[in-house]
Every structure is written in C-alpha cells, then in structure tokens.
Amino acid sequence: MSTPRIAPGSLRDVGPFTWALARVFGRRSGTEPPAVFLVLGRHRRLFRGWLHFAGRMMPGGRLPRRDSEIVILRVAHLTGSEYEATQHRGLGRRAGLSDIEIDRVADGLDADGWSDRERLLLRVTDELYGTSDLSDATWADLRAELDEEACLELLLLVGHYQMLATTLRALRVPPDRLRR
Q1: Which of 71, 89, 126, 143 has the fewest CB neighbours in a 10 Å radius?
Q2: Which residue range or ranges hold the Carboxymuconolactone decarboxylase-like domain (predicted)?
Q3: Which conformational region is residue 3 in: left (phi greater than 0), alpha (psi within -120 to 50 degrees), or beta?
C-alpha cells in the first residue's frame, strides 16, 4: 500500500476523547491505536457522529456479533479492504468464529459448512455489494429469518462497511500493527 493520504492525528489533531478512545481500543485489540479512529478523528464532529452510528450496529446492534462479523468480513473481502479484513479477523475470533470459518468467508455462500442463516447473510451481503439491491426472493428469505429492525440493521451494516472500506482504501490507511 502506498503512503497514507491523511496521517493518523496527534492528541492535538483529534482531541483528548478520540486520543484516549483510540488507546483503549488498541489495548483491547492488541494493536497500536486504531488508525481508523486517528484518521477519521481529524474531523471531530463527523467522527463522533460516525462513532455513534457505527456503535449502534456493532457492538451494540440487534444482530448477534458472530453474524455481524461474518457480514463485515465478507464486505472486507469483496471490497479488498486489507484494513477491515485485518481488524475483523481478530474481532471475528472474539465473536466465536474459528480461523477456518474466517478463511471460508472469502469462499462465499457456496462453501461447505455454513448454516442456512449464515448462507443467507452472505447472499444478502453479496447481492447488496453487487447490485445495491436485493431480489424479492432474498428479501422474502431475509424477512422470514429476521424481524424488521434486524433487517434494517443488516442493510445498513453492509452499506456502512462498504463506505468505510472505500474511505480507508482511498486514504491508503494501512492495517494496524500488533503491539509488541
């Protein structure tokens, strides 16, 4: 990856709230402070709004964390987001995904071993990524599996991580390094 287009901000650039939050999240994930926080945090008002929005879906959403992580890892794969793939491999493990399952996300819904629900989540993610829409059949299957609020959350989760992957790629943000 080439040189980042916007460097992670300093304490002065992002303010004490974001600076402290990045350090806490880095410690929890075993990495340096997340660059996503320190880059997006350079726009303080937008960062706080984004953080609130993102936190309502993950980790504070209605979907089980395991489901959310399958979706996020699939979006990371489809978009080629090295940052999100690296970040969410660890988060996926914490949510109960095995390394085999995490690797299988790249193979998609036709890979052996997925439950019907997991195949549906992958199908929804693939359709939204490919067409920005869902077929009537996929929507019917989704509504049979999830309530209305969870459906809304899933659609927003896919769109949010596509947006984030695009932003991180355009800014050339490299994955966070593991702490020593």
Answers
A1: 143
A2: 46-127
A3: beta
Q: How far apart are the first and last CA of the chain?
A: 22
For residue 29 the two structure tokens come to: 């994930």
How far apart CA 19 and CA 8 sit, in angstroms, is 10
**DSSP helix/strand/coil, 161:** helix
Domain chopping of the chain, boundaries: 11-57, 65-169
| DSSP label of 31 | B
63 within 8 A of 54, measured Cβ to Cβ = no
Q: How far is CA 170 from the centre of its chain?
A: 16
The fold of the 65-169 domain, in CATH, is AhpD-like (1.20.1290)
What is the total residue count of the chain?
A: 180
Task: Calculate ∠ Cα 14-18-22, nearest 5°.
Answer: 115
In 3-state terms, what secondary structure has residue 178? strand
